């Protein structure tokens, strides 16, 4: 008889414990979507120096956050916008290499997004501007039959701080995000 009364309490406790992992996305999580894009390792930049074909090329941001540029060496890129890198390169080239360099920096390839959990083919996928969770899951082979298709957990690096939050599948992604599709309860 006591076991029958204890069973509903125990069931409620187990369900509450299962929900304690829920973390809604913090405000900074969504604010990051509207900030200028900052570069990091894995991004690839197309640098054009007008009338300097030997300097115009595609450069990758290395693990340390720099691009290796001819004549001037390492140029810091991590945490900077493409416009800031453009100004840095032009300023360094002015110091004894070119009189008035005309430099343009554009993002050639963004760092990838990662999709894990209940999807057809978990892995690393190329980011394209405007990518949403749904599009990333589609690239990863779609939801598995056991997947929770309502919301997912995203891990995002915001100003050097790694945050995880739960979002709906129509939310936009940023380069470098990790998407985790959970298994549904029923």
Automatic annotation (TrEMBL):
<keyword id="KW-0732">Signal</keyword>
<feature type="signal peptide">
    <location>
        <begin position="1"/>
        <end position="27"/>
    </location>
</feature>
<dbReference type="InterPro" id="IPR003715">
    <property type="entry name" value="Poly_export_N"/>
</dbReference>
<feature type="domain" description="Polysaccharide export protein N-terminal">
    <location>
        <begin position="35"/>
        <end position="107"/>
    </location>
</feature>
<dbReference type="InterPro" id="IPR049712">
    <property type="entry name" value="Poly_export"/>
</dbReference>
<protein>
    <submittedName>
        <fullName>Polysaccharide export protein</fullName>
    </submittedName>
</protein>
<dbReference type="InterPro" id="IPR019554">
    <property type="entry name" value="Soluble_ligand-bd"/>
</dbReference>
<feature type="domain" description="Soluble ligand binding">
    <location>
        <begin position="113"/>
        <end position="163"/>
    </location>
</feature>
<dbReference type="Pfam" id="PF02563">
    <property type="entry name" value="Poly_export"/>
</dbReference>
<dbReference type="Pfam" id="PF10531">
    <property type="entry name" value="SLBB"/>
</dbReference>
């Amino acid at each position: 008889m006591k076991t029958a009364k204890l069973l509903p309490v125990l069931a409620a406790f187990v369900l509450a414990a299962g929900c304690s992992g829920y973390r809604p996305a913090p405000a900074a999580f969504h604010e990051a979507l509207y900030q200028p894009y900052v570069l990091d390792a894995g991004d690839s930049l197309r640098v054009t120096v007008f009338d300097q074909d030997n300097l115009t090329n595609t450069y990758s941001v290395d693990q340390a956050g720099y691009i290796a540029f001819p004549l001037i060496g390492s140029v810091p890129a991590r945490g900077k916008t493409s416009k800031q890198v453009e100004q840095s390169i032009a300023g360094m080239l002015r110091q004894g290499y070119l009189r008035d360099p005309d430099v343009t920096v554009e993002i050639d390839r963004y760092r990838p997004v990662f999709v894990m959990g209940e999807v057809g083919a978990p892995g690393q996928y190329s980011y394209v501007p405007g990518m949403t969770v749904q599009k990333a899951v589609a690239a990863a082979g779609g939801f598995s039959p056991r997947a929770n298709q309502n919301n997912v957990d995203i891990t995002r690096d915001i100003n050097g701080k790694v945050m995880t939050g739960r979002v709906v599948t129509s939310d936009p992604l940023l380069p470098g995000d990790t998407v985790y599709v959970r298994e549904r309860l029923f």
